[in-house]
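Good morning,

Attaching, inline, the C-alpha cells for the sequence recovery test we're adding to the shared suite. The designed sequence is right after.
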C-alpha cells in the first residue's frame, strides 16, 4: 500500500489514502523543504538576527535612530524574507505622503507580518512597548536605543510623559505601527479591534494609515514551527483623517478602519 498507483483523472493512492496530484505535489515539496529549514534557514536566521540587532544598536549610538532602525529592521527583514523565500507584492505605496507621520494599523495573522512590514512598507517606524519590557536585559536597552516607545500607563502623569515623548519621536515621516486586534488571528478572520491605538492616534493628532496583510499565515501559522515558502501581499490604503473624530465617536473610527483593512480579504 506504500506504492503510488495512478487512477484517472490525476488521482493517486498514497499510503492507502486517495489524494489529487496537487495535494501530493504539495506534500512532497513540504517534505523536501524540511532539511533546508532545519539545517540552513533556522541557523542563518538566528545568526542574522544577532548580527543585525547588534548592527542596529551600534549604528543608533554612532549615528542616529533612523539609520539604526534601517540596519536592524529593513535589512534584517529582507534577509529573512530572502531565505524563506517569501515573494512580496506591495500595492498602494503612493498613498504614503513623504514627510508625513502616521499611526499605521494592520491586521495580524502571523509573526511574519512584522517581517513584511519592516522590509517592505518603506517608512521609518517605531513600536509601542509596555514599560515592563525595558527591564529585560538586552531587549529593553537595545529597543530604547533604536527609538521604540515605552508606554507607562501606571498613572495619568506617567502616561502623559510617555505621550509627549512619542510626539517628539513621531515627526518628519517617522510612524508608529499598531496591531489593533492585539494578537494574531488563528483563522485569518477579523478579531475584535481594541481602542488603545485609536485613542493614541487622537491624542497624537496623527492620521491613520490602514494596511492589509495577506498570505503571511501560509508562511507561518499561529502556534506552528512549520515555516514554508510562499507569496504575500501588502495593500496600503488611503489615510484616514481623524480630525472629525473624538472619544465620543471613536467606535465609528474603529469600525471604519476595520472595514478598510478587511474589505480586500473578503473580495479575495
Amino acid at each position: 500500500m506504500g506504492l503510488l498507483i495512478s487512477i484517472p483523472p490525476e488521482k493517486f493512492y498514497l499510503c492507502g489514502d486517495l489524494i489529487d496530484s496537487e495535494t501530493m505535489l504539495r506534500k512532497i515539496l513540504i517534505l523536501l523543504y524540511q532539511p533546508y529549514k532545519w539545517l540552513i534557514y533556522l541557523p542563518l536566521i538566528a545568526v542574522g538576527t544577532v548580527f543585525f540587532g547588534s548592527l542596529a544598536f551600534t549604528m543608533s549610538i554612532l549615528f542616529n535612530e533612523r539609520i539604526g532602525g534601517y540596519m536592524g529592521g529593513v535589512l534584517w527583514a529582507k534577509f529573512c524574507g530572502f531565505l524563506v523565500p517569501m515573494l512580496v507584492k506591495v500595492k498602494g505605496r503612493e498613498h504614503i505622503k513623504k514627510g508625513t507621520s502616521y499611526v499605521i494599523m494592520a491586521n495580524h495573522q502571523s509573526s511574519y507580518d512584522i517581517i513584511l512590514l519592516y522590509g517592505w512598507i518603506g517608512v521609518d517606524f517605531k513600536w509601542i512597548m509596555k514599560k515592563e519590557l525595558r527591564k529585560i536585559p538586552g531587549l529593553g536597552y537595545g529597543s530604547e536605543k533604536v527609538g521604540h516607545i515605552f508606554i507607562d500607563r501606571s498613572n495619568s502623569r506617567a502616561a502623559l510623559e510617555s505621550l509627549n515623548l512619542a510626539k517628539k519621536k513621531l515627526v518628519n515621516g517617522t510612524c508608529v505601527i499598531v496591531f489593533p486586534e492585539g494578537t494574531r488571528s488563528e483563522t485569518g478572520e477579523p478579531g475584535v479591534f481594541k481602542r488603545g491605538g485609536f485613542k493614541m492616534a487622537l491624542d497624537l493628532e496623527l492620521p491613520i494609515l490602514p494596511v492589509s496583510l495577506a498570505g503571511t499565515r501560509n508562511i507561518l501559522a499561529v502556534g506552528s514551527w512549520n515555516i514554508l515558502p510562499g507569496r504575500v501581499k501588502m495593500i496600503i490604503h488611503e489615510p484616514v483623517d481623524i480630525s472629525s473624530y473624538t472619544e465620543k465617536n471613536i467606535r465609528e473610527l474603529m469600525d471604519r478602519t476595520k472595514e478598510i483593512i478587511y474589505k480586500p480579504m473578503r473580495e479575495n
